[in-house]
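for the writeup, i need someone to sanity check this before i put it in the appendix. the sequnce is what the collaborator sent (i think, or maybe the updated version? ugh). structure was predicted straight from it, no edits. if anything looks off just tell me and ill rerun, i have time this weekend
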Amino acid sequence: MHVDCEKKELEAMKQKLKELEEEAAKLRSTQGGVPEDAEQEAAPEAGSKEEADTRSVFVNNVDWGATPEELQQHFASCGTVNRVTILTDKFGHPKGFAYIEFLEADAVDNAIMLDNSELRGRQIKVMRKRTNVPGLKRGRGRGRGRGYGPPRGRGYYGGYGYGGYGYGGYGYAPRGRGRGRGYAPY
C-alpha cells in the first residue's frame, strides 16, 4: 500500500516535470531562444574577452533615449555590428555611454572616424575600448584621513583637559573660531 502511494507521487512528479520542460521550451521559442550552450557563453575565457575588446569601441555622450538599434544603424557603415551594450544604472536608466562590438577588428578604425559625429542631436565621442585591468584605478584607498580633524586617542582636548588659556576643565574644548593671541575687542 505504501509503495503504491510512492509510485503515484513519483509519476505525478515526472508528469509535472515534463509539463514544466514543455513550458520552458515554449518560452524559449517565443523569446528568440536561448542557446543550449548558454553556460559556456556566460563565462568566456580571458583571451576571448581581450580579443573582443580589440573589436570594440566605447561611445560617450549617447542620448538617454537612444536605442541599440539606432546605434547599430549609426555604426553600420563601419562594419558588421556584433553587439551593442548601453550601460544603465541600478534603476535601468541609461548612463549615457555604450560599447559597440564588431565582427571584424578593422571596423574599429572606421568607427573611430565617426568621433564627434551627431546622433540624436548630440555630438558623440568614439574611442577604442580599453581592456579592464583589475585594481588599476583602485589607488591607495581612503586610508585614515590624513590631516583632517583632531588626532585620535587621548590628549588633544579630551582626557586630561585642554591646556589653553581659560580652558582647564575636564574634556572641554574651545568653541567657535577662538580669539587668538592678539585679540583686541575695541
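The chain has five helices and six strands. The two ends are 107 Å apart (CA to CA).
thx in advance!!
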